[in-house]
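Open question from group meeting: does this chain pack into something compact, or does most of it stay loose? Before anyone orders reagents, we agreed to write out a predicted structure and look at it together. Recording both the input and the output here so the notebook holds the full record.
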Amino acid sequence: MGRILIKNGLVTDDKCSKKADILIKDEAIEKIEPSIDASILTKEDRAIDAEGKVVMPGAIDAHTHYHLVSRGTVTCDSFEEGSRLAAFGGVTTVVDFADHNRGQGLVRSLQYRLDEMRPGMAIDYTLHQGVYGHGYDSTIGKQLEDLKTHGVKTLKIFTTYRNTGYLIENREDLLDLFTNAKRLGMLVTAHCEFNPMIEEISDNWKGNFSPASHALLRPAEAEGKAIELFGSIALEAGCPLYVVHCSSECGLNAIRKLREKGLTVYAETTPTYLFLDRSYLDGPDGSLYVMTPPLREKSDNKALRDALKDGEIQVLATDHCAFTREQKLSCSDCRTIYPGIPGTEEMLLLLNTLKDQTKPMTMSDVVRLVSTNPAKLFGIYPQKGSLEVGTDADITILDPKARWTLEDDKMHSASHYTPYRGFEVHGKVRTTILRGRIIMEDGSYYGIAGSGRFLKQC
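Structure tokens returned:
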């Protein structure tokens, strides 16, 4: 594989932007200098003129569900399709999820997921490992030790979905989990919706079950209450907490209170909760916008945008969980609509648009939210999420001046729709490079299924 020289770009990491050139050799960054003479290149090498473009570390979507088996079906974006749409969005790494399979311990569940992913992934990946109530027992400490030796240090837990066995109901079990996570230097990530509140609302519900009712059946108060619960346990164990897809001002306020008490809380949100509100659940296409947690009020959008600007949120991810338009619209009962929407491809573009609309956000803030911070939190930095000599040459070249409108037929998800249809976005990904190899350039895809690598977390 020949070298690649990226010339004249605005090289941007989480600290600053500067005009510089980058030389890539094999899979790594070999040089970053103010100017690198192109005469060093041979006929096997390649030069890319990035004049007027942002050259940044490859984006990381820290929350995806590709090829997820759910409710008797499977999400429509396979590992191959997920890799492809990610490349078009400038994403070179994802953090996907391994379920805690019934009848299997954590390591076997992890290995099952890796065996599924390995043949199809064309971008790099690591995993969060689910820890579910149905499989929780006294061996959890030893299981976590073994999981860590296999390269996974992030865990996923729920305070809802009792009917599926995901919920760990016993507070002592949760304290045991957090205490072991603290002992082993592992990070607990949490889906926060307080199950007793949700069940009480459901049991006493007198309304219909249209898509619009989803936001009432799973209110923001349930998110805030669950964050309080997990936070109290994390405080007792002295263990940090990572809140996935924070959707509301109520959730934000619960996070703030925990931080005031001295707990380290990392907050993640998604573009859905920044750009979409519950009005999208009305009308004939409302089923397309059903996800969990539900869409909230416009005031929640604003609160989350302000928190993002002010540095209260550490990671922007997507919770990409795509079903086809036909699958979504086949049902109008919010209890049984397939929950989830696409988003990986749109993530960087939407954040760059928000940056342009929100002062004083900078391109370094963008890099921090979708690259550097997730790499650091999930143990793959500086291999990923940086532009340092010797690290993986994962690079996204973004044209910041491009203006275009997101439409269903312009996206690459097998869902065949984008929830952001009609949004004008700032920026266009021109080139995506994974470990020194171009996998997308000017609208053409060059990814190779099976070439993606599992990244052990350290």
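Observations to bring back to the group:
The longest strand covers residues 395-405.
The longest helix spans residues 220-237.
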